[in-house]
Design a protein that fits this description.
With about 270 residues, the protein is α/β, with parallel strands linked by helices. It is about 40% helix and about 20% strand. An eight-stranded mixed beta sheet has the order 1-2-4-3-5-6-7-8, with helices on both faces. A hairpin with a 2-residue loop joins strand 1 and strand 2.
């Protein structure tokens, strides 16, 4: 029975996650800058100092990001860290039950009403509790600690949804990452792309109201004018927002896109770290 500690809450959430990926995480929970962090060590000593950081979506440090970290570490031979910047206070992944899973999917009126209620009573207050004024100092302290406490020399930040905003920030005006990958971003605008200063790749969903076609096109145009900064946008057919972090294990199209997004992250790290 969980005793109320942050690690116990993380473990309990991992067990009850909505439709998790198959497998068992192989890493461990450690403390970095007073933040509970999932850590999986890379196998190649030559890659020491080069690390990947995952900034999660609103569902936090549950099973899926741990398994993604394991896969990224296995393919890149680099250390991977996943900080719990929410301190155990994540949105439960059952929220996804009311969200579309494939492009063009229509939800019932009941599902739409349920989603609206959750947005108003659960997600709205959660976003306020974890607003930028609260979250950014935690992220900034964590990235700085990686260099001072973990001897990181090159860092790639990978951000999913909510974490995508902070990945853009650490790759921009805060000078905390050396390369970034954003997966189905949210809470972003064109200024975040204008301020980018490091190589940046993006895994984009075919249908995504959080990172719509218009913003993606504008972002591509902005980065195309930064000829000294490599950038790449990959659009994955048959996907919606969340495919790279919360794929349906029973949908082969989405699982293929999920694997390809992981390969993009590894390719980017190997190229730019």
């Amino acid at each position: 029975m969980p005793n109320g500690t942050t690690e116990d809450r993380l473990d309990a959430c991992c067990v009850t996650e909505y439709r998790p990926l198959p497998g068992t995480p192989r890493g461990q929970i450690i403390k970095i800058a007073d933040v509970d962090t999932y850590f999986i060590e890379g196998n190649d000593q030559k890659s020491k100092g080069k690390i990947i950081v995952i900034l999660t979506d609103v569902f936090g440090l549950v099973k899926n990001p741990r398994l993604i970290a394991d896969e990224l570490s296995g393919k890149s031979d680099m250390d991977v860290y996943v900080p719990d910047v929410f301190n155990g206070d994540a949105v439960h992944s059952s929220f996804m039950k009311d969200l579309p899973e494939v492009p063009g999917e229509k939800k019932s009126i009941g599902a739409k009403l349920s989603l609206a209620r959750k947005l108003l009573t659960e997600v709205g207050p959660w976003i306020f509790r974890h607003r930028q004024a609260v979250t950014l100092p935690i992220v900034e302290k964590f990235f700085k600690a990686l260099r001072t406490e973990r001897n990181a020399t090159r860092i790639q930040s990978v951000g999913y949804c909510f974490g995508g905003l902070y990945t853009l920030l650490v790759g921009g005006p805060f000078h905390l990452a050396d390369a970034i990958v954003g997966c189905h971003l949210s809470l972003t605008n064109k200024s975040h792309f204008e301020q980018l200063q490091v190589p940046a790749a993006f895994a984009c969903a075919q249908e995504d109201d959080q990172f719509p076609d218009s913003l993606r096109t504008e972002a591509q145009q902005i980065l195309s004018r930064k000829s000294d900064i490599p950038s790449k946008f990959v659009l994955f057919d048959g996907t919606v927002h969340g495919f790279a972090s919360r794929p349906n294990p029973d949908n082969p199209t989405i699982m293929a896109a999920f694997k390809q997004a992981n390969d993009l992250i590894v390719e980017w790290a190997k190229t730019h770290l």
